[in-house]
Amino acid sequence: MNLSSEIARTAFQARISGVGSYLPTITLTNSDLERMVDTSNEWILERTGIQKRHVCPSSETTSDLALRAAQAALSKAQLSPQDLDAIIVATVTPDQPLPSTACFLQAKLGCRQIMAFDVVAACSGFLYSMNIAHDFIRAGTYRHILVVGAETLTRMVNYQDRQSCILFGDGAGAVVISKTQSSESSSCIMSSQSVSSGAFTDILQVSAGASRFPVTIERLEARQNLIEMQGREVFKSAVQFLRDTCLEALNKAGLTVEDVDWFLIHQANLRIIEAVAKQLKIPIEKIPSNIREVGNTSSASIPILMSEKIEDGTLQRGQVILMAAFGAGLTSAATILRY
Ligand code: UT7
User: Fold this and answer.
1) How far is the CA of 53 from the centre of ligand 1 (A)?
2) Ligand 1 centroid distance, CA of 163 (Å)
């Protein structure tokens, strides 16, 4: 297996030095949803693979979830908040429209004055952020970057829309990405790919609350400040975007599907994951999933899954992992690394 010439050429590599996650203890089960909308446990399980999601308590915000995931990741990396050179938070459910959730997190962690900003790329946000961090590290700009995916999506879900309210949950996942010297055998990020297509902005959106449609009483009453989704359209595009992005990332790394030990795919819908597996001929046993217990946590989905699968011993140092996501935009991203 060879690293692509693009990656082997650079002096510095980026490796994951710590991973952590946090899920609130309150849960919302399919049975709970049966009492809220016209749906059934059987329908939700069969069409999505989801049985329950976690819900952030009303006393907490996205940066509180991010804080716990970040502390866990820093502990695994054996680093303190003072060691961080930058913080990137991927979220579509920030603490406030302004300032960034990354700044709230920075204050809660007690970091030095360092760069901190949010990335809005919906469910691809965590991988977009990883890919940005990867480039900062390869350029030699920073040594340790905290990358967090954190969401309180249950605050943005329309619990009168049975098609979308069954999907989403809250949670946070974090990684510390650290600078290391180039070496073909050591742990490093091998390739990254981030794309978007603005031709699909209307199939998954929150339309009200910003410059295009400022908040008005009428728009709040029409629930335009909450998630609106064309499920079937998103489903079709998701499979296509995930397939193409995975292939591009594999191509950039000079790898094939057979070279990859584990595929961590955005936990949006089990049927989307199965369709991608079929198209790319990936054995389903190589695709771990936690969607049944966690639901779709958008940008937090992949780092939560990664953290859980490291904790239970599934993911081991030295293995090749491909992570891939898609989301509103439409956005799509993939990162391949040797863990
Ligand atoms: O991170 C990205 C976030 N978004 C996604 O990943 C969404 C991707 N799309 C999906 O996951 C699926 O499209 C859904 C799970 C949202 C819907 O599943 P589907 O198999 O595409 O169902 P459908 O929209 O084609 O609807 C089939 C039927 C409809 O009834 P009729 O018109 O056939 O009578 C829906 O009204 O299922 C009905 N339906 C439901 N029935 C029970 C839709 N939602 C529900 C529900 N419970 N919760």
Assistant:
1) 17
2) 5
Domain 188-338 has CATH 3.40.47.10: yes
- Contact 166 CB / ligand 1 (< 6 Å): yes
Residue 121 CA, ligand 1 centroid: distance in Å: 23
The tens place of each residue's pLDDT in the chain, 339 residues long, gives: 454 544 555 678 999 999 999 999 999 999 999 999 999 999 999 999 999 999 999 999 999 999 999 999 999 999 999 999 999 999 999 999 999 999 999 999 999 999 999 999 999 999 999 999 999 999 999 999 999 999 999 999 999 999 999 999 999 999 999 999 866 558 999 999 999 999 999 999 999 999 999 999 999 999 999 999 999 999 999 999 999 999 999 999 999 999 999 999 999 999 999 999 999 999 999 999 999 999 999 999 999 999 999 999 999 999 999 999 999 999 999 999 999
Residue with tokens 């009200």: 208
Residue 168 alpha carbon, nearest atom of ligand 1: 3
Phi, psi at residue 38, to the nearest 5°?
-80, 85
Q: Which sequence spans correspond to the domains of the chain?
A: 3-180, 188-338
Ligand 1 touching residue 330 (CB < 6 A)? no
The CB-side HSE value for 202 (13 A sphere, CA atoms) comes to: 1
Query: Can you tell me whether residue 263 is helix, strand or coil?
Result: strand
Do 90 and 329 touch, CB atoms closer than 8 A? Answer: no
CATH class held by domain 3-180 = alpha beta
Query: Nearest 5 degrees, angle CA 129-CA 62-CA 30?
Result: 105
CB of 159 sitting under 6 A from ligand 1? no
Query: Taking the model in full, what pTM does it have?
Result: 0.96
